[in-house]
Design goal:
- Pfam families: SnoaL_2.
- It comes from Belliella marina.
- This is Nuclear transport factor 2 family protein.
- Residues 19-108 form the SnoaL-like domain.
- The chain has 118 residues and is of the alpha+beta class.
- It has a single domain (3-115), classed as Nuclear Transport Factor 2, Chain: A (Roll).
- It contains three helices and six strands; from the N terminus they run ααββαββββ.
- It has helices at 3-16, 22-32, 49-62, and strands spanning 33-41, 44-47, 67-76, 79-87, 93-104, 107-115.
- β3 (67-76) and β4 form a beta hairpin.
- The N and C termini lie far apart (36 Å).
Length: 118
């Protein structure tokens, strides 16, 4: 897959973590997520865009006004590694971590997210 396509998919995925409109978020996820999508982080493992959207909605409730800023992004062989900061509305870093992603057939197939649990 072309690097620019992966970057576009990743940016849409990142933005969905802050998308409060459920229908809008689900529509965007359905465009970029593979049917057999898998997500893993220290707190959960889930599959499918609907469960991911629900998890994103819960994140927004738990961490109101927080967004993710990508600090470094690398791509090779249909895989990406993103380092990120979670920032609050005052632009203060309140957490950070890394996501490893795999892409297949023009879609995001899997994400493994790593961060320190608080």
């Amino acid at each position: 897959m072309v690097e620019t396509k992966i970057k576009e998919i990743w940016e849409t995925y990142r933005a969905c973590w802050s998308e409060a409109n459920t229908a809008g978020r689900e529509n965007k996820l359905n465009q970029i997520i593979a049917e057999d999508f898998e997500f893993y982080d220290p707190n959960i493992d889930l599959d499918g865009s609907q469960k991911l959207s629900d998890y994103m909605a819960q994140f927004q409730k738990d961490f109101p006004d927080c967004t993710f800023t990508i600090t470094d992004f690398m791509i090779h062989h249909d895989r990406s590694l993103a380092h990120w900061d979670m920032v609050n509305s005052d632009k203060e870093v309140v957490g950070n971590g890394s996501d490893f992603a795999f892409y297949s057939d023009g879609k995001l197939k899997a994400v493994s997210s790593f961060f320190k649990e608080s």
